[in-house]
Amino acid sequence: MKYKFINIFAPIFILITTISFINSSKIKGNVISCKAGSYLTNKKCQLCKAGTYSLKGQNKCYQCKAGTYSSKGSSGCKKCSIGTYSSKGASSCKKCKAGTTSLKGASKCSACSPGTYSKAGSSCKTCPDGAYSLKGASKCTTCPAGTYSIAGSSCKTCPDGTYSLKGASKCTTCPEGTYSIAGSSCKTCPDGTYSLKGASKCTTCPAGTYSIAGAKTCLDCQKDYYSSKGASKCTKCPEGTYTDKTGSSECIKNIKSQTQQDAEALRKALNKNNCDEEAIIKITINRTFAQRLEIVKAYKSTYGRDLINDFQWRLFGNFEDAVVALFTDPIEYDVEELIEAMDCFGTDEDTLIEIIASRPPSVLAKIKKKYNKKYKMVGDQYLIRNLEDDIEDETSGRLKKLLIALLQCNRGINTTPNEAQCASIANELYKAGEGKSGTDEAVFQKYFSILSPQELAVVYKEYQKKTGHSLFDAIDEEFSGDANKMLKTIIYTNLFPSEYFAIRVHDAIKGLGTNDNLLIRVLVTRSEIDMPKIKQYYKILYGKDMYKDVKDEISGDYQTLLLGIIG
Predict the structure, then answer these.
(1) Could you tell me the CA-to-CA distances from 419 to 218, 413, 456, 513 in Å, in that order?
(2) Which end of the chain is more exposed for a tag (fewer CB within 10 A), N or C?
(3) Which are the contacts of 120, defined by CB distance < 8 A and separation ≥ 6?
(4) CB-side exposure of 239: number of CA atoms within 13 Å?
(5) pLDDT, tens only, 430-487
(6) Which residues, other chains included, contact 401 with Cβ-Cβ below 8 Å and sequence gap of 6+?
(7) Residue 204 has pLDDT above 60, yes or no
(8) Average model confidence (pLDDT) across the chain
């Protein structure tokens, strides 16, 4: 019976085995071909293990190469994703550790380059502004105070005259009255010194001036007071001495005796067959305006001659013009400049703008009074001059109105502005210009002719705060030509006078030829006011030394004289 049982079921078993084999393989003649992802073993097709693969009909599994992986029964290997890696025959990819990364299909991880970072299994990202990293970093480090960085670059030290807080992307310029060295915090300038914006050191106040801590400028000593270099206050002159001007470094003794000596020396220099220009220059550059005017009087009383006429008789050219200007009363000099600006062929609007916009009301009143005593030839008659009438005849449009408005001498003298009122004026100016279609020029004329320098400074600041740009920008947008130039000159000469006259010096010597009249006027009229600051601003604006630029532009005795004024 047993034999019969086996005999009956044997065909069934063979049929089942054959069907199973056919499901995982394909028989071609006597060869068995396994499907992709499997291999032949003992005449059976088995799935390839993880980390290997096979193609259809290969009947053998191959290891995945480094940088790829596979799961069980795979027909191919997949590349590892960015930020992961694998070795040969891997069933999965491993994450790169923090501070490293990989490209797709990588067999190993590489350290993130400086300025970048990564978390485990991710790509390297650039550090944000104000932070940095070394090679292989898992996070960025904030730049310390006094340094800065952009987009992951190494932290760089802020240059002199600037500073930064922790994590900065740029350095901030130190304000006036402070200084910094190599990114340190801005320190206040001590007594007796001052600094402009962005200074790397404080400048010692020259003799004749003083300052207290944090000053942006040095103030002149009053008359009968003096100071030495770097003073925090001025000292009263001892009994029996005095000073004849503000900003004196020493008190004067026996000024009349010195004046007489100078008058005699000038007469001797002018009386020689060959005029002694060196002696004239030496006296001229070493005396103040007040002292030179006393010399003119002493010369007249001693010799009965006019010193200015003798200069004009014996000297020549630009040297003559400069010497005469230095021995002429400043009010008289301005009057003569205004007459020349309107009497020559065509009108010199730049000279009119410079003088009338830059002189304070008290000086303008004296200029008007002296001008209105001058005569001019009309036809065959001499007629008395009138400054406002001449301005009416020689100029036009908004420039004419602005010049005449300033000649009313109504500019305020308030030194403690009402900030709320100034903010309201700034708003009015905005509404009259940028805040409307067209321009209400009368509003600009009104305020620019009556505001004190201190009030104008606050209005300037409030306009910047309101609009995000300066009044200069607004004027450029709303005005053109001479009116534009006039309004900007009013701002410059009231708020930034030294910067303005540095520009005027540059205007006089730039390009081909030299505007000698302009050069002489600026150097003569500012010689005792702010010449050191003009030189500083010239250096800031043009990156050059004003003394050298002027020296290169002119020559001879004229050069020696002007360089003596510049100092």
Answers:
(1) 25, 15, 11, 46
(2) N
(3) 83, 95, 96, 97, 98
(4) 0
(5) 999 999 999 999 999 999 999 999 999 999 999 999 999 999 999 999 999 999 999 9
(6) 445
(7) yes
(8) 90
